[in-house]
Amino acid sequence: MRQVDEAAYKSSRNGPVVVITGASAGIGRAVAVAFGREGCRVALIARGRERLASSAREVEQAGGLALAIEADVADAEAVEAAAAQVVSTWGRMDIWVNNAMASVFGPVTELSPKEIRRVTEVTYLGQVHGTLAALRHMRERDRGTIVQIGSALSHRSIPLQSAYCAAKFAVRGFTDSLRSELHHEGSGIRLTMVQLPAVDTPQFDWVRSHLPRRLQPVPPIHDPEPVAEAILRAAWEAPREIWVGGPTIQAILGTMVAPGLLDRMMARRAWEGQMTDEPAEIRDGNLFDAPPGDPGRRGRFGSRSRRHVPAVSGTAARGILAAVALGCVAGALTAAWHLGARASRDGDLRRLPERERAARMIG
Q1: Which of 5, 33, 67, 332 has CA atoms 20 to 30 A from the CA of 262?
Q2: Which residue in 35, 96, 124, 164 is the catalytic one?
Q3: Closest listed residue to residue 151, CA positions, set 265, 243, 29
Q4: pLDDT of residue 282
């Protein structure tokens, strides 16, 4: 354990213990600082010693207590060792946030099996390793919360990020299975998944890419800090899912209603939407090795990113969709009834002269 500031220790020594993977930059770093402001003891797991130490300093400046642990989440033994270090240092863990990710941009035909494997090992298996490590320690107390950081791409795949989308889909499938198992056991451990929109993080300057132009998140882009606040809400309240950002809500609900239409929309908009007009820089990216330096929380899109982001539970959003669908069905039935009633009245009027003639013949 590295030396920590004594005042920070005194203010945070009884605070909740939070573990965050991928905590050295971007969303993970913003979440770590947000927990620090809540007076939490925050364990930060990531590659890259320089920016990991910088992230830990920010947590303590915010009022928390930090423990920096350098580890690759693709290494299950390293994650287990990190979890054991947290418990050895602070006696327990209350919240575990699985945030670490890796990606590679390019058409499927240009990706190598090695690249796809690495994305899967970090983005999917990294969350599996973190979940297993958290469960082993949380089960002893039958309490704790595991937060899975997902994406709109956990529900709606886009072109040029097939490996990442597949890994996020896998995380959602794994999480849903585990949730059912915890219910079956009557476990006190809570499990939640947060589906994120496009966020202004440094990853677009270090991720591996086979594309001819510089990368960008598919607009609209959001600041990391309000997104981090939504993740905090998920950690404290533990809904089944939280959908963060209007584009996330639209993408998930749109996929439920009209997946084929979204396939065609993604073919047009998401392809060009992931690139700027600037030519790409040649680089290996961070897929296999952590790049040097300390990029911080934000990327280069601050002038275009949104500072406010809506967030709703997936249950509420599905309820709204169901209500709208029922309203549409009810409206259609009402319209059909009125049309039928009108047709019946018109038919009665047409038959009236025939009835009169028949009555005269009888008379």
Answers
A1: 332
A2: 164
A3: 243
A4: 72
* 346-352 mean pLDDT: 53
Q: What is the pLDDT of residue 2?
A: 38
Cα angle 11, 9, 235; round to 5? 70
Are 2 and 43 within 8 A, CB to CB? no
Which residues are registered as beta bridge partners of 66?
A: 42
**What is the sign of the dihedral through the CA atoms of 132, 137, 141 and 143?**
negative
**Is 164 in the active site?**
yes
Superfamily of domain 6-309: NAD(P)-binding Rossmann-like Domain (3.40.50.720)
- In 62-143, which ranges are continuous DSSP H helix? 76-90, 113-119, 125-138
Domain locations in the chain as residue ranges: 6-309, 314-363
User: Tell me: the pLDDT tens digits for 288-333?
Assistant: 988 778 888 898 888 888 888 888 886 665 565 555 444 444 444 5
35: which residues sit within 8 A by CB, 6+ positions away? 16, 18, 20, 42, 59, 64, 95, 232, 235
Q: How far apart are CA 5 and CA 10, in angstroms?
A: 9
- Strand-pair category, 41-46 with 17-21: parallel
Give dist(CA 64, CA 11) in Å, integer: 7
pLDDT, tens digit (0-9, with 9 covering 90-100), for 257-268: 999 999 999 998
Residue 232 CA: distances (Å) to CA of 72, 177, 290, 312, 315 = 24, 23, 27, 13, 18
Q: What is the pTM of this model?
A: 0.84
pLDDT above 70 coverage of the chain, percent? 83
The sign of the torsion formed by the CA atoms of 284, 290, 295, 298 equals positive
Please tell me the chain's helix, strand, coil percentages from 3-state DSSP, rounded to the nearest 5: 55, 15, 30
